[in-house]
Amino acid sequence: MSGSRRSGAFGWKALLGIAISVALLAFALRGVDLHEVLREIGSAQPLWFSAAVFAATAVFLVRAWRWKPLLQPMLPDSPLYPRFAATTIGFMTNNILPVRIGEFARAFALSRMQPIPVAASFGTVAVERLFDGLTIVAFLLISIALPGFPGTATVDGVEIGRLIRLFMVPFAAAGVALLAMVIWPRQAVGIFERTIARVLPRGLRRPVVDALEAFLAGLAVLRTPSLILRVCLWSIGLWLLNALSFWLAFRAFDIPVGFGGALFLQSLIAILVAAPSAPGFFGPYEAAVRIGLVGLWGVEANKALGFAIGFHIGSFIPVTVIGLYFAWRLGFSLREVKQSEDVVEQAVERDVAGEAQGCDEASDPSGYGGGAADPLPNAGGTAGP
């Protein structure tokens, strides 16, 4: 993709994210007294608030620990320091730059510090996000099943139970599709190319297929039961710690909602921030709090928005500062961060093209093939760096 086209794509994605953030902020702040919101922020209890921010920041350390088993097939002895540095660089990028390129920056940063190809690094990040999604939905369902959940509550006249049932249908379908992709990755790519890829604009077809190839290669960890168990346990611990940070913040803002509500709210926020937004997820975060605390638990709107804005900014600052520090130590400029998406995409394209050529040579009846490894085997691990 040319530089002008990349700039244009970056620009319209950024504008779309800003527009969505503005719309969701307007929804969240509807009927709210900003002076009262500021008063609620100022009245937060410092010890509870500090504990909440500390727990929220510790989540990123747990993310770095969880990353190790995902990297193990390609990088058996990965130290914690580069994993933590790359993790904070990625989340810092999402906090200060538009169009959600933090995952690309994270993969690129790790490849700068460790002997792992950037395409393989990105594949593990994609798989990590998959585990996040599964854990989030599991905790969402658990929180709904707990006693005290306001199941008959409505959001703008729509019963929350109906919304959840509607949400679960595509999730169940996605789970079945994912299982099929783990078992038959090559067939999944072939079906995708013959169906969905055909309706995409011509310029997007190859990059999307390449990204799918990298993602499915990263799914190799799902074919190793011991690694699956380790990643699942880390994911459960990570999101329980994140929910704890919300519960501590509830105490700081004197919000009478229990740990089950914290589980539900973090899941709702995680789902909404998946939408395009301005840097830092401002808008989706506050809208999720408005729906969860005000719409379901009946928390007073000014208090709920005081919590949303105060805790959002409070948890935003530490990881952003830490990520900027590591980027400076690595010599990783903001320009390189912005270009990391292109670097990763080009690496994935080269990786897939090289593997495809190797497979063609391996099947060449003339006998000149090199017997390259299959990038998407039906069993076994991924290739090393």
- SSE series: HHHHHHEEHHHHHHHH
How much helix, percentage-wise, in residues? over 70%
Poorly predicted runs of 5 or more residues: 359-385
Give the rounded overall mean pLDDT.
Answer: 82
| Total domain modules | 1
Can you tag this structure with a few keywords?
single chain; 1% strand; disordered C terminus; 385 residues; mainly alpha; 74% helix; two-stranded antiparallel sheet
Q: Overview of this structure, please?
A:
The chain is mainly alpha-helical. It has one domain (3-362). It has 14 helices and two strands; from the N terminus they run H-H-H-H-H-H-E-E-H-H-H-H-H-H-H-H. Helix 3 (46-71) crosses helix 4. The two termini are 26 Å apart. 39% of the residues are buried. Residues 359-385 have low confidence and may be disordered.
Compact overview of the structure:
Helix content is 74%, strand content 1%. The chain has helices spanning 3-28, 34-42, 46-71, 80-96, 102-113, 118-145, 160-183, 185-194, 202-218, 225-252, 259-272, 284-296, 301-330, 334-362, and strands at residues 154-155, 158-159.
Write the topology of this structure.
Layout: H1 3-28, H2 34-42, H3 46-71, H4 80-96, H5 102-113, H6 118-145, E1 154-155, E2 158-159, H7 160-183, H8 185-194, H9 202-218, H10 225-252, H11 259-272, H12 284-296, H13 301-330, H14 334-362
Antiparallel strand pairs: 1-2
